[in-house]
Design a protein that fits this description.
A hairpin with a 5-residue loop joins strand 3 and strand 4. The strands form three sheets. The chain has a four-stranded antiparallel β-sheet with strand order 1-2-3-4, sandwiched between helices. A four-stranded antiparallel β-sheet has the order 5-7-8-9. The protein has a two-stranded parallel ribbon with strand order 6-10. The mean pLDDT is 85. It has seven helices and ten strands. By secondary structure, it is an alpha+beta fold. The longest helix has 46 residues.
């Protein structure tokens, strides 16, 4: 009995040592990635100064880690960085990390940057500087950078990356045809954009749904995802080696009236 207890104690010590090593190894890997991630975010801000241009103080300009998910099958990690809540024109940054620890960051601008999102039925705001790229273009660059064309499983990895980004990181809700009333009847006010006429807003929301419905593709049960927090619906279309992510604006400009 005493011998068995000694063996059990040794096994416990070995397992404990292995666990500590695993924790230390994972922590070391994450620390080694931090400079790459920080550099990718800084480079993105330098490339697109609109991410911080209208922020008046340092705190409102900072991008802080919000959440992260790790996809186990292909060992992808997706991180979300956000500016603090409570500031106007809040932006976000997505950071993708592949199994080789290569990093790519892309911007999630707020809805006033209409050229970036290519919103249908919307004209760019005159006072807003154009981004001169689009969400679809940036997402395609991220995919091609992190998943090489020589990878025979690229299409599967691409689909998983998109699905994890929309469902897990951005916490989108899948939109189906039966959700029509929710799409064109629910108003989401925003203080970051100019005031809009309510009647014209309802017309735009209905047009959004009608256009969305005509371009429905039954991938993963649905190809439409409602990002309620950012007041956008994303519609994903697969076109050979490229994807097109159409975005529909679901908010409207409103401001308090003081009497």
């Amino acid at each position: 009995m005493k011998k068995m207890l000694n063996i059990s104690a040794k096994n416990f010590k070995l397992r404990y040592a292995l666990l500590l090593f695993a924790i230390f190894f994972i922590a070391s890997c994450n620390q080694s990635l931090d400079p790459k991630i920080n550099d990718s975010i800084q480079n993105l801000i330098e490339k697109y100064p609109q991410l911080t241009a209208d922020k008046k103080d340092i705190k409102s300009r900072e991008f802080k880690f919000t959440r992260s998910i790790r996809e186990g099958k292909f060992n992808f990690e997706i991180q979300l960085y956000s500016q603090e809540e409570g500031y106007k024109n809040r932006n976000h940054i997505l950071v993708f990390i592949n199994s080789k620890k290569e990093v790519y960051a892309l911007p999630l601008f707020n809805n006033k940057y209409r050229d970036y999102w290519e919103f249908p039925f919307d004209k760019p705001l005159k006072e807003v500087t154009k981004i001169n790229t689009t969400f679809s273009k940036e997402f395609n660059i991220a995919i091609d950078t992190l998943i090489k064309n020589s990878d025979r499983r690229k299409s599967i990895k691409r689909a998983i990356l998109i699905d994890e980004t929309l469902n897990s990181v951005l916490s989108c809700k899948k939109i189906k045809e039966k959700d029509s009333v929710m799409i064109y009847k629910t108003l989401r006010g925003s203080f970051d954009i100019p005031d809009e006429n309510i009647d014209s807003v309802y017309i735009r929301l209905r047009k959004n749904y009608e256009l969305m419905k005509r371009q429905w593709q039954p991938y993963f049960d649905t190809n439409c995802f409602f990002d309620e927090k950012n007041s956008r619906v994303y519609q994903v279309e697969y076109h050979g080696n490229k994807i097109k992510i159409k975005a529909y604006r679901m908010d409207y400009g409103m401001h308090y009236m003081y009497l």
